[in-house]
Amino acid sequence: MSESRKxxxxxxxxxxxxxxxxxxxxxxxxxxxxxxxxxxLGCEHGxxxxxxxxxxxxxxxxxxMLAVQADGHEILTVEGIAPNADTLHPLQEAFRDNHxxxxxxxxxxxxxxxxxxxxxNPNPTEEEVRIGxxxxxCRCTGYQNIVIAALDxxxxxxxxxxxxxxx
Amino acid sequence: xxPPPFSYHDPRTVAxxxxxxxSLENAKLLAGGQSLMPMLNMRYVLPDNIIDLNRVDGLSYIxxxxxxxxxxxxxxxxxxxxxxxxxERCPIMHEAIRQVGHRQTRNRGTLGGSLCHLDPSAELVTLxxxxxxxxxxxxxNGSRSIDFSTFPVAYMTPAIELDxxxxxxxxxxxxxxxxxxxxxxxxxxxDFAIVSAAVLIEEDRNGKVTRASVTLGGMGPAPVRASEVxxxxxxxxxxxxxxxxxxxxxxxxxxxxxxxxxTSYRQQLATVLPRRxxxxxxxxxxxxxxxx
Lengths: 167, 292
What we know:
- The structure holds 2 protein chains of 2 kinds.
- Chain A is α+β, with helices and mostly antiparallel strands.
- Chain A has helices at about 25-35, 90-95, 105-120, 125-130, 145-155, and strands spanning about 5-10, 15-20, 50-55, 60, 75.
- In chain A, β1 and β2 form a beta hairpin.
- In chain A, α2 packs across α5 (about 145-155).
- Chain B is about 30% helix and about 25% strand.
- Chain B has 11 helices and 14 strands.
- In chain B, a hairpin with a 6-residue loop joins β13 (about 210-215) and β14.
């Protein structure tokens, strides 16, 4: 019953040809087989959002997909957000500057979720941000600084400078 | 590696899928995976075979014909959310779908998956009852259509055979300018509703209700059409005091008692949410072209 399949996926611009057991989730494939441990697993049943990745540009919970289903698709994980090893993405900078994280466990999911959200809605209201991140759980921050970071990132991505830091 | 072992099949056509369904033992169809995958991860289900519908051609579309919207079973909830045809011809569906889960789950979740999973609190299930949808099903002996009123046969159990699959659902559209509202009570945005109310109304030029559809989700194993309330509304003018009287009768509906809310709480919501939805629907009629 340990049926496997060969799949071809592009993750963060790199093409991988891998053989994977059919019952392995996309999240476990990304973490264990590709070694990209930035994608975190919190609940593994689609509630916490920590494992959010972008599949062909659209956010998805990688614990709710099988790796075989990603065959032929393009994936972006948190490791692929920054333009290069020395530069953070403006969203990451905004999280750093606004204390948008404490323990950091949920952060990969928030970042990937917000990459899609800010692409679709570059000038969101606070209410829209809160609905946008409603599928991600954070047990440290109370969300306040995550919302501020998201609004700050939106401003930066629009090229309008940044919010004045409260810290 | 959480899911139990299974054999994986990814057919390309409905015909091949139906053959697989008829020949494989203990097979489960995998649509968007937003319910089945958690159940696999937690090993609530132990299928010997998974038949993945994600590579089957021709199951993802939204078509407008004969005054109805036909939506393919594998149409993503996201595509329904962003469809202009849905927003224009069936605005209550647009309102309801935005309350289904979250962006990440709507990107994957499908119409057919939600209807077949048949969670009693699912927005699309309640909506299908409110709109008198018809579900198209394919099997080895051809296809058939099932009225949604007879689609739920028991808790989370649709009226389809083991070797059948849902291919689409058809939602009759109400005339332009009708009043509508989908209102739900949930503890957090994106949660399943504890109770939801789907309401559609038409009024004549004097503001009297001529047609009404009132549906409650989350009360029991299947959505409840409040037919007594629908009848009582005919000829009435929508105003709060009268609605309180009419909707009070909904308190006697049966309701489940679970970890989320006791029966009496749901019965209270059953009197409140349709009233709110009817007021909203009426307001939208007045603001629209309802009284021209």
